[in-house]
Each structure stands twice: as structure tokens, then as C-alpha cells.
Amino acid sequence: MEATRDIRFNELKNTFNTQHLLSKTKGDKVIWALVVLLTLVSLLAVYSATGSLAYKNYKGNTEIYLFKQVAFIGVGIMVIYFAHLINYTFYSKAAKIVFMLSVPLLIYTLFFGVKMNEGSRWIRLPIINMTMQTSDLAKLALFMYLARLLSKKQDVIKDFKKGFLPVMTPVAITCLLIAPANLSTALLLGASCLLLLFIGRVNTKHILITIGVAMIPVLLLISAAVLRHKDDTEPVIAKKTAGSTLTARVDTWVSRVESFIYGSKEDIDGGAYQTSQAKIAISKGGFFGVGPGNSTTRDFLPQAYNDFIYAIIIEEYGIAGGAFIMFIYLVFLYRCIRIFKRCPFAFGAFLALGLSFTLAIQAVANMAVTVNLFPVTGVTLPLVSMGGTSFIFTCLAIGIILSVARNVEQTEGKTQQKEAIA
Prior knowledge:
Largest sheet: 3 strands, antiparallel
Helix content: over 70%
Strand content: under 5%
Number of helices: 15
Radius of gyration: 23 Å
Order of helices and strands: HHHHEEEHHHHHHHHHHH
């Protein structure tokens, strides 16, 4: 009898704790549901994409990466939960400090970071011995700081010196520090910021001038790729020579643009191997896919669990599955725009919108690379690609968005109560 009472007491206690946790979980319920959906997709896709790799590296243990992903998802959900409990005005107070911290971190990464593929994007965290991509922290810090600036300078936002320069300077600094090691991330971040500035009532003429200036190096890269393709007959990989890190990065950028424009030639030479394998995965998938866990391209596609996980999703779940993933991100963006419209305070509105823009644009860029609509970049699919510090920062961004939504609901609830009393 005592054992039965103890079991019932524990069940009631767990039920109470669960109900208490759910009662404190506020914010946009649709966004919460989308987070759960994407994490479930992530578990299926990562397990499938890493099965053969885990079997090879861990002597038959095919679940090792799945367990790691479960751990990252668990930590990520906790980050979202605790971040959404914090009043979003706290992020306004912390924005300047975090941004000022991110700038020296980017400089340190540029010169002393962990180098991979000729680029220095990571720093190694000493205690947990993990690598962190400092651009993820910088992106989050920039949008927090930019939302703060836009909300404070609405009265002078049309003025070039008082409005445009103060809000554009942190964007330029961050993008310039990220660009040498990760040009694609810098371009996507710049595009997201300019979109937020446009919605923040910044003078359109100033934005167009900025776009014109930013297009100069992009056009130079395209011109260099076209000229090198016309002048040289050797494969791009064979032409790479030893030199400085920046020279190597420029050569990589030109090679990727050349591979994107002249795909057929580079497919033969091997320069567009990832894109070729992604195309094979998509062609095998058809409309409904080959079924969960039945991907064969995962054994040949580098970064199948990370940058090119969307190709594995299409192969296993078809175009229908790929369209469903795209639909989830579009709904997420729509719900964030809805939060922007409902938020009574400028900082919260700009913060939610800016963070949603960067996540949605990152998702679109990842999917565009997979279907060969954009040159190979190296950006992950938010909440779906295999976990890392990028996954955690994505969860933190979503938690901040939900914090804004939570406070919007509380404000609307108080307003309704006052109206009911009146």
C-alpha cells in the first residue's frame, strides 16, 4: 500500500511540475509548435545523414550522432524557455555591452582563430573544448544593438549624420570583420540589416547607396570568375596556389562563383562535387521520396548532416517534404511579422523582426544552395542541421522573439482587463 501511495504521489508531483512548467510557457504557441516540428525533423534527418559516418568512425555505433543531437536539442529548448521568460527590455540594456564584446572577439577570431578551409571562423572554448563560430554571437548582438538604435533614433532617422550613420556603422563594422573568413554570412547579414533599416524608416536613398557600394566587390568577384574561366583551361582546384590566408579565401570565392556560373565544366573537374551530389539526391527523391533512412547519397555528399541536410530531406521525403520545410519557415516569418505589428514598443518590434529576418534568410540561402540557385556558402539550416554553437544561438534568438511575444500577450491582456472594467 505504501509503495502504491508513493507511486501515486510521484505521478501527481510530476503532473503538477509539468502543469506548472506549461503554465509559465508563454509567447506565440504557433512558433513553439514550429520549433518542435523542426527539431523532430532534425532528429530524423541527422540520424539518417550520419548513420554510415557513425558506423565507420565509432565501430558500428550508428546512434552516437543521434544522441548528440538529442542533447543539443534538449539544451536548445532550455535556452529558448529561459530566454523567453526574461523581459525583452533586458536585451535592450545588454545590447551595447554584448555588441562591444563581439567586436574584439571577431578581431581575435580573424587573426588567432581555429582555421578550417583557409578561413578562421572559430575560437576554441577552453573548458568544454568546443569550437564556437563568433559570427553567430556577433549576429545576435548586432540585431539587439540595431533594434535599440532604431527605436531611439526614429525622430532623426531620415537625417544622414544623425540617423543613418549611427545605425549603419555597427552593421558595416560587423560585416567587414566577418567577410574575410565568411563572405556569404557577411552578405546575408548585411541584406537582413538593410531590410530591417528599410522597415525602420531609414531614408531609401541612403539604403540604395549602401547597396551600390556593397555590390562593387560582388561584381568584381563575378568578373574575376568570368575572366578566369575564359582565360584558363585548367581546373579551378589545380590553379590554387599557396599564399596568404586572404589570397586563399579570395581564390575560394572566385572558384565558387565560377563553379556556380559554369557548373557543367566544374562538375567534370570535381570543383562542384557537393552541388552535383545534392542534385543526385534531389533527382532520386522525386515527389514523395525514397522513405526515411533510405538515402544513398548521404554516403557521398560531404556535410550531408550540416550544410546540405536539405538535400537528404528531399531525397527521403521528396519535393513534398522539402516544400513542407519551406512552408514551416514561411509560417515562422509570418508569425514574427504578426508580433512586430502587435508590439506597442519600437525596440521589441524591431528586435523580433530583425531576428526573424536573419533566420528566414539563412534558411532560404541554405535551401537555395542545395537546389543550385545560389553559390555554395556554408550556412546551416536553422534548427535542422546537426547541433553546435550555431544551433544554440539560433535557439537563443527564437527565445528572444518569444520573449517579445510573451510581453505583447501580457500587455494586450492588461488592456483587455481595463476595457472590461471600464
